[in-house]
Design a protein that fits this description.
Length: 273
């Protein structure tokens, strides 16, 4: 296996809604994965086989037929499915983020899809496990709250909880072209000036003055010369990460029990899920 799960999350139960076609696809990909493990006598085969059995049992219990039923039977023989690839991806140094990508002969979620691949994302964060199944569907764009902001610093690790229905501002960083209407020479050639910009993120978060005292933790990290790893999880399932530190003023609103959290760093903020 090329990924890790935190010990305390090994038995965590998650819920997910999938079609029979998607279940068949995942089961078939796991079948091919099991075959590869068996060829190398890999001790992880038992766990992969257990996962496959769970998927097949879900197919049989939810979509199986009795002899009197007048329906087309679902074929649970995973060896017959045209599965071309299964990838288990780690896009982060945070081990609780797991991403499984499977390709279904050119179609998202099977022959009824739009083409490409679908991605099964598992995030076992502090808010509990989150599972989403996404593909190349151009008809929908989901936004909304930032669920949590986690940090991993030499001073410790923890989480900030953003206030609901507040704006969150992402600046991914990188090089920017100077916006100058006069950046052109006499021959009409464009004069481009590229300058590097830092990444940044800001939003309004809750402040528990009595117990967690998030504002003090933020101030401590701002005073430290060491940067931390920051991860931002959206309600739409996307997860972003960057290495940086708190910047700007840190002023808490005692009446509203909130303060504005702004974090920034060099290089770029990257999407890891």
């Amino acid at each position: 296996m090329s990924y890790q799960v935190k010990t305390q999350d090994l038995q965590k139960v998650i819920s997910i809604t999938l079609t029979a076609e998607q279940l068949e696809t995942i089961a078939g990909a796991l079948e091919m994965y099991c075959i590869g493990l068996a060829e190398h006598n890999d001790p992880s085969l038992k766990y992969a086989a257990d996962a496959q059995n769970v998927i097949i049992n879900a197919l049989e219990s939810n979509f199986g037929i009795d002899s009197d039923d007048d329906y087309t039977e679902i074929d649970a023989d995973c060896n017959q499915l045209p599965i071309s690839d299964l990838k288990i991806v780690v896009g982060s140094d945070m081990p609780e983020y797991i991403q499984i990508e499977y390709i279904t002969n050119g179609h998202q979620g099977g022959d009824a899809g739009y083409g490409g691949y679908a991605t099964l994302k598992i995030h076992a964060g502090s808010c509990g496990a989150i599972v989403s199944l996404n593909g190349n569907n151009p008809q929908e764009i989901d936004g909304g709250d930032i669920i949590e902001i986690t940090y991993n610093h030499t001073l410790g690790s923890g989480v900030f909880y953003p206030k609901s229905a507040e704006d969150s501002n992402f600046d991914l960083g990188g090089f920017r072209g100077n916006d100058d209407a006069n950046a052109v020479d006499g021959s009409g050639r464009s004069i481009r000036s590229l300058n590097r910009a830092r990444w940044s993120f800001d939003t309004l978060v809750s402040w528990d003055m009595n117990t967690d005292n998030e504002l003090q933790k933020l101030t401590d990290m701002a005073e430290s010369p060491v940067e931390g790893t920051w991860t931002f999880t959206s309600v739409n399932g996307s997860v972003w990460q960057g290495k940086g530190a708190p910047v700007g003023d840190h002023t808490g609103n005692g009446n509203a029990s909130t303060f504005t959290l702004k974090v920034s760093g060099g290089s770029k903020m990257k999407k890891i899920l």
